[in-house]
Specification:
Blueprint lengths: L1 E2 L3 H7 L7 E5 L3 H15 L9 E5 H6 L3 H7 L8 E6 L6 H13 L6 E6 L8 H8 L3 E5 L5 H14 L3 E2 L1 H11 L3 H14 L9 E2 L1 H7 L3 H14 L3 H13 L4 H23 L4 H6 L10 H10 L2 H18 L6 H19 L1
Length: 350
């Protein structure tokens, strides 16, 4: 059966007693692993016991496709619930696995163990996915990247459990930096909880400064400092932020690409304005939206930078990108020169 939407949480919290196995697939392997760990605790009282649990990989089944059937039918030495955990990195044994799933679904008495399968992204054409979705005693659950709202809820929930609050601006800054893999997001939240002393200090609150200091993606915050100050004509601040980024081993190419993206977004906002929209409305039309704390600076950049100057700036960054691809190119000097040139232009128009 296929479990989607709001049914996923209820299913994972209380899987049906006649459920033989669950397939957890999708691009977010961290989420698949987290859900698998939760299911394993529901299915087995001794998931770490070598006599009660068996771990298989896709390569194990490539050399011996029948091994999954053997493990699923093997009785426990001590009479407790056995568990088979299958980690799939490829589907070379997909046909054999799907045949085993179909057979156990029709003959549930042959299943002496519960099955939890973790896989990567499987298309709708996947034989394994089709078998789990079509079965009555097996389930398939897609594991996709959390939305911004999901991440915000997770951050607030986990921090609250440790008696820690978070400022709205800090949450707005942190959530985009957490997007990607559930396991990495969890690690970052746990690191923040540790940093804030597990909430032992009354009124512990995560601030923007905390996020910039600790978040794994805080490089993005330091890059924003460079870009926003350069385009705003704050030459000294731009130079200082650039030097700190270099000292922190921030990738030069990433700084340049971030600058290109910002200039392109300014051009897109100008296009909206030329169609009759006001500046405030134009920036709200951008996707992803402008970070709330940067709206004032972004509006200021729209005022400072005319369309022609933005096109020239974009052209300069594209030329620099080509230069960076040359062996031995002085990346710091190339990008630093562009930043200071842009900052100098903006400073004259402030």
């Amino acid at each position: 059966m296929k479990i989607t939407g709001g049914r996923v949480s209820n299913f994972l919290s209380n899987p049906p007693g006649d459920m033989i196995g669950v397939l957890l697939y999708g691009p977010d392997r961290g989420l698949a692993k987290e859900r698998a760990e939760g299911l394993i605790k529901k299915f087995s009282d001794n998931p770490d016991d070598a006599f009660s649990s068996t771990i298989l990989t896709s390569d194990d089944l490539t050399s011996d496709p029948a091994r999954l059937a053997d493990e699923m039918s093997a009785l426990s030495m001590f009479g407790d619930q056995r568990l088979v955990r299958l980690r799939l990195d490829h589907e070379r044994s997909g046909a054999a696995i799907s045949k085993i799933i179909k057979n156990l679904d029709v003959n549930p008495d042959k299943a002496a163990a519960k099955l939890v399968v973790e896989a990567g992204d499987l298309t709708t054409r996947s034989a394994i996915r089709k078998a789990f979705e079509a079965a009555g005693r097996f389930a398939a659950i897609g594991c996709y990247k959390d939305s911004a709202a999901d991440l915000a809820n997770m951050v607030r929930r986990d921090l609250t459990e440790s008696k820690i609050s978070i400022d709205r601006d800090a949450l707005d800054l942190w959530v985009p930096l957490l997007e990607g893999d559930r396991a990495l997001s969890r690690n970052e939240i746990e690191k923040m909880i540790l940093y804030k002393g597990y909430g032992q200090e009354p009124g512990a609150t995560v601030s923007v400064a905390d996020v910039k200091i600790l978040a794994a993606g805080a490089q993005a915050a330091s890059i924003d400092d460079i870009i926003m100050s350069a385009m705003g004509g704050q030459t000294a601040k731009c130079d200082d932020a650039f030097k700190r980024a270099i000292a922190g081993k921030v990738n030069i190419a990433v700084i340049l690409l971030s600058l290109q993206r910002h200039v392109s977004r300014l051009l897109e906002a100008h296009a909206h304005m030329q169609s009759g929209e006001r500046a405030q409305s134009a920036i709200k039309s951008l996707r992803p939206p402008v970070f709330r704390m940067q709206e004032r600076a972004f509006l200021n950049h729209l005022r400072i930078w005319p369309t022609k100057a933005l096109h020239n700036a974009l052209s300069e960054t594209l030329t620099a990108e080509q230069q960076l691809k040359s062996a031995g190119a002085p990346g710091e000097a190339i990008v630093g020169r562009i930043l200071l040139t842009l900052a100098g232009f903006a400073a004259k128009r402030r």
